[in-house]
Amino acid sequence: MLDLSDEVRAEIGDEEADRLLAGENAPGAYDCTSCRTPGDSERERTSTVLFVGDETAVLAFAHAACLPSQIVEVAEEQLQGAVRAITGSADEGAPGPGGSRGAPEQAVLGVTSGLVLIEGELRPALVVEPTGPIARPGAAPGGGDEFLQLLIEQGFMPVTSLDGVPPTVHGWSVLLAMGQLHAILQPGTGGGPQVAWWQAPQPLQVTEGWRAAANKLQSVLLFAAPAGSIGRQPREDLLRDALDRAASGGRLVACGMPLAGT
Q: What are the start and end residues of every segment in region (Disordered) (predicted)?
């Protein structure tokens, strides 16, 4: 039950596209590249999404209700450097990209929103967890997971408990527009304008409670953990438990960010 757009077909080639549609290389079970919850291409409509850099392309899958089949342009350095391995699709037998951009599958950043009770107040939070290890840009493959260290160098603070509000990191912000999450912005190089550190493939809906809390406080907390530390939690109490476990295990960094938009 795969949806394959004409633009994705043109990029991966007719041969690979026909194999996908015939079920030869269908992913079967997968984690949606948008909402990160499980999907099954044999039982529900599934979109093929091709992430494309200058020289690299990565084929991923999403619930058709979350994303249409499309090509998403991604900075080549994100695919080649900061991002190394996509775990879910590789484990589940997803096909690699065809055409001229053959490349190993890559990790992507998953973002979950939720309200977290800290110092007696429900605070809007985003939790970032990659689907695989993140290497330092330019590092040789197999060099280990540098995700937390890279963020610490950007001003994020290691968190051992969720008893206090983490400090604000300057130059970063969370872009919200019309009640939807669009991007996490970081400082531009050389004092230039902000650029997207993470950008939603399509705007993500947040709850009314989350939006109200963000508008009230004009800030959002960002928590980040290595792949496999948090997981996709269906309830906010379970998300809090997972954050507490990651913090006590030394696998969590955090910061506050101003809210941009409403």
A: 15-41
